[in-house]
Amino acid sequence: MGISRDSVHKRRSTGGKRPIVRKKRKFELGRPSASTKIGPKRIRMIRTMGGNQKFRALRLETGNFSWASEGVTRKTRVLDVVYNASNNELVRTKTLVKNAIIQIDSTPFRQWYEAHYGVTAGRKKHDATKHEETASKSNHVQRKLEARKPLSKIGQLLDDQFSTGRLYACIASRPGQSGRCDGYILEGKELEFYLKKIRMKKSK
Questions:
Q1: Per-position b or e across 148-176, b if 16+ CB within 10 A of its CB
Q2: pLDDT tens for residues 118-140?
Q3: Which of 82, 102, 107, 126 has an alpha carbon within 20 to 30 A of 135's alpha carbon?
Q4: What predicted TM-score, i.e. pTM, was given to this entire model?
Q5: CA 10 to CA 79: how far, in whole Å?
Q6: CA angle centred on 70, ends 66 and 72, rounded to 5°
């Protein structure tokens, strides 16, 4: 039997059975879930109603992630799935779905931050390399970086993550529908909330 999204087979709100007056229809069909995993990109196109298309991602390893407080988006690698509010099984199998909490590579964001502010993100601050960098920059660029430095403060939790090379992010797209794994970096209260949830899960 195929997957169906109809309500003809459901009982009435009173609990009574409905008589089945017709067979299944094409417009009521459902499809198996994509269960997108982490790996080399593998996407299948599906023809849908009206001749439209869905892009079923079976494997994905990169995505576009936004750093909202800085207004920056970079393409980066997806490293791991760490939390899912709906089902722990999706964490164990490392399935990419909308609203899953994942870990991404921090390198593109760290490189942008250092180029934009002239300050090293993370705990490892090397004074020697900083002196070398400032010596190779023009006066105009140095003045520009000095003016930006007061705005370069990021949250302590996010700063700690830069030193590990991994950032927590949330998937905002639907990989099984759009064939993309895009999202945003967790910050502030939202980051605190999910770190607490992850710690609670590990302590069990």
A1: eeeeeebeeebeebbeeebbbbbbbbbbb
A2: 877 775 554 445 544 545 778 87
A3: 107
A4: 0.84
A5: 42
A6: 40
